[in-house]
């Protein structure tokens, strides 16, 4: 077994490697930073008491998200294959079972399902770039902004076009491969995303309500905190970090041996969390400046903010910047969500990367049509958690991602031998011991507790 034979030659990835540690950090950060940070985080924080939710979210990120991310990366680098093949290979090598491949399959499927509806919302951002740049929201009333949004999502043809365009953009990048496609894309888009965020933050600071936004973000109101809020915080931590869905495991397979998993994970978690916080600090002051409700839900970005921008000097320019920012964030995340399934097709069925990417993109596009129709033709067709869109969102965010994260930490902490994990993490000191304790006890217990709450 590789894990028990020191000196054995390390595996190499079949898809190439990141050219540097920074390339990996940018790629994983790009995968992690997406609509979850900029679209979902602000309104979920608004619905769950602001500062109280943010505090719980940060605890979930550090105590649960970080060890799960480290576990997923070390498993990916150890196996050097797609998530399904990696879990089967390592399961056998560690003296357990090849049935762990189903965990890899769970991650691949979660990525496909998430991207199927994520692409629909991401398509909206493309449309809103055009709407903002052409001055649609300048001086618009709340009724006019609401009517614009309602008319847009009510047209299945319009959002199908945007969904198709977005999936084509993601497919183009992934088809070009690890270094020529994914790495080149994130080297441009992640720094651009950060610059756009800082520009927007500066604009928000001049609104006159920045202090109120800061107070809302960081003053805990525990009366509004419920078990549902804790569940939402954990689900948000998984969603924003892209853990439990195979993307980080796939990216870890391309990580050079000399790169520190602990250091890279810490850099990604810090960058991802910082951008989520920055998004809140940029958005909430604009909401308060216009007397709007920070708990407006999914419509916060597509109805509340366009109204706010439309009433401000320079609002057309900054509204356009904001939706370009959202589009970039969504694009980098979509790339990460597609990669596990593409890698699996390439390895398992010996498909060319281009063929595999087109197949995966087509399947995701087709499933996504269910979410497209959830906002119009099938809007009144509801079951369990609501529309088909609502059900896929609930299934992936509240069940599949936590379940995947739970099993990943169990595998890394209990199934893999100490030599294997310490070899990948490059340390047997305090940091390694802290990871091992969190991965074996704290993270699984925390995830299990919230997961049970989600299904009861």
What does this structure look like?
The chain has 18 helices and no strands. The protein has helices at 21-32, 35-47, 51-79, 83-93, 101-133, 142-153, 156-175, 178-205, 210-218, 227-241, 247-252, 261-289, 299-310, 315-349, 353-374, 388-415, 418-425, 430-455. The longest helix is centred in the last third of the chain and has 35 residues, at 315-349. Residues 1-8 have low confidence and may be disordered. 76% of the residues lie in helices and 0% in strands. The protein is mainly α and 456 residues long. The protein has one domain (16-455): Hydantoin permease, CATH 1.10.4160.
Order of helices and strands: HHHHHHHHHHHHHHHHHH
CATH architecture: Orthogonal Bundle
Give the CA-based shape.
globular
Q: Tell me the major beta sheet.
A: none
Uncertain spans:
1-8
Strand portion, in percent?
A: under 5%
| Rounded Rg | 21 Å
- Total number of strands: 0
In the CATH scheme, the class would be Mainly Alpha
Number of domains: 1
């Amino acid at each position: 077994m590789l894990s028990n034979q020191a000196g054995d030659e390390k595996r190499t990835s079949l898809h190439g490697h990141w050219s540097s540690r920074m390339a990996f950090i940018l790629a994983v950060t790009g995968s992690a930073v997406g609509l979850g940070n900029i679209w979902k985080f602000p309104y979920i924080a608004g619905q769950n008491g602001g500062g109280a939710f943010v505090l719980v979210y940060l605890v979930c990120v550090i105590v649960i998200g970080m060890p799960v991310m480290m576990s997923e990366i070390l498993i990916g680098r150890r196996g050097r294959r797609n998530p399904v093949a990696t879990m089967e290979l390592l399961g056998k090598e560690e003296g357990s079972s090849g049935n762990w491949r189903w965990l890899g399959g769970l991650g691949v499927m979660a990525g496909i399902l998430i991207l199927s509806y994520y692409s629909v919302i991401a398509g909206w951002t493309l449309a809103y770039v055009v709407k903002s740049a052409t001055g649609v929201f300048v001086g618009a009333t709340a009724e006019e902004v609401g009517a614009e949004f309602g008319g847009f999502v009510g047209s299945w043809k319009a959002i199908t076009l945007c969904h198709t365009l977005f999936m084509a953009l993601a497919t183009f990048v992934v088809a070009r491969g690890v270094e020529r496609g994914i790495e080149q894309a994130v080297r441009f888009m992640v720094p651009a995303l950060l610059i756009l965020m800082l520009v927007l933050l500066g604009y928000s600071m001049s609104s006159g309500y920045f202090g109120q936004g800061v107070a809302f973000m960081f003053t805990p109101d525990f009366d509004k905190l419920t078990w549902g809020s804790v569940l939402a915080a954990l689900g948000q931590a998984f969603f924003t970090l892209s853990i439990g869905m195979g993307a980080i495991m796939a990216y870890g397979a391309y990580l050079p041996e000399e790169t520190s998993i602990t250091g890279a994970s810490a850099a990604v978690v810090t960058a991802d969390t910082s951008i989520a916080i920055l998004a809140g600090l940029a958005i909430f002051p604009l909401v308060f400046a216009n007397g709007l409700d920070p708990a407006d839900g999914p419509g916060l970005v597509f109805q509340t903010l366009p109204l706010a921008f439309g009433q401000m000097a320079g609002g057309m320019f900054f509204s356009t910047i904001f939706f370009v920012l959202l589009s970039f964030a969504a694009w980098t995340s979509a790339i990460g969500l597609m990669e596990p399934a593409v890698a699996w097709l390439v390895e398992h069925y010996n498909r060319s990367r281009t063929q595999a990417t087109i197949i995966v993109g087509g399947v995701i596009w087709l499933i996504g049509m269910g979410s497209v129709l959830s906002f119009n033709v099938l809007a009144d067709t509801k079951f369990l958690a609501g529309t088909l869109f609502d059900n896929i969102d609930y299934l992936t965010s509240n069940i599949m991602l936590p379940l995947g994260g739970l099993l990943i930490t169990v595998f890394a902490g209990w199934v893999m031998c100490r030599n294997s994990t310490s070899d990948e993490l490059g340390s047997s000191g305090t940091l390694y011991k802290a990871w091992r304790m969190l991965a074996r006890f704290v993270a699984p217990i925390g995830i299990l507790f919230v997961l049970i709450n989600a299904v009861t």
